[in-house]
What we know:
Blueprint: H1 11-15, E1 19-20, E2 28-31, E3 36-41, E4 45-46, H2 49-55, E5 62-68, E6 71-82, H3 91-108, E7 114-120, E8 127-130, E9 144-150, E10 153-159, E11 166-170, E12 175-180, H4 182-185, E13 186-190, E14 200-206
Bound molecules: 2-oxoglutaric acid and fe (ii) ion (FE2).
Fe (ii) ion (FE2) binds next to loops.
Amino acid sequence: MSAMPAHQPSMWDLADEPVLTPLPGRVVRHPLTAGAWVDHLPGWVEGSDQVLEVLLGDIGWRADRRQMYDREVAVPRLLRWFDEGEELPHPLLGEARSRLGAHYAGELGEPFATAGMCLYRDGRDSVAWHGDRIGRGSSQDTVVAIVSFGSPRSLLLRPVGGGDSRRFALGHGDLVVMGGSCQRTWDHCVPKTSKAVGPRVSVQFRPRGIA
Length: 211
Ligand SMILES: O=C(O)CCC(=O)C(=O)O
Ligand SMILES: [Fe+2]
């Protein structure tokens, strides 16, 4: 982890306990096309420095490699997958998962189960255009809820067949939720940025069998 820029919150910030603010009536729905939607609530988590500090620590981050044509290349972010039942590294994250489960129960019909995490070490880290289509996400509507910690980055979405893209800012403690047909009919990405940004951790809650 030595390649990562140091994040140094003040002692004052670290002493603050993080809190989840209410969701109902505050989260704003942005309808897309084809029955896809995005819910956005900047500042859902208040006092997130302690959570970020834990997430930037030794929680089992992995540097993956993948085959690209005839070369093997490094995946431009670190990954950590928490399976259903695995304890999450900060209690606020377990609480976030239950609160999201309660809020989306009517639309989702099942609880959020797994927590996939990505660590974008700096502006060179990114995730390319894709939909979360491993498993049922390729054929059925689902909901993927993302809580961001650390430096702000953008989440872009564009229709699979082409069309104008939408941009959502993902800052420290912000919530963005992709739902309806979004994983099938839209793609999303977190582009690289030339801005001098520090690390960002994305925590993605998904129901069982979606990735
Ligand atoms: O960093 C993010 O918030 C998005 C990550 C993502 O799309 C994924 O891991 O499937
Ligand atoms: Fe994704």
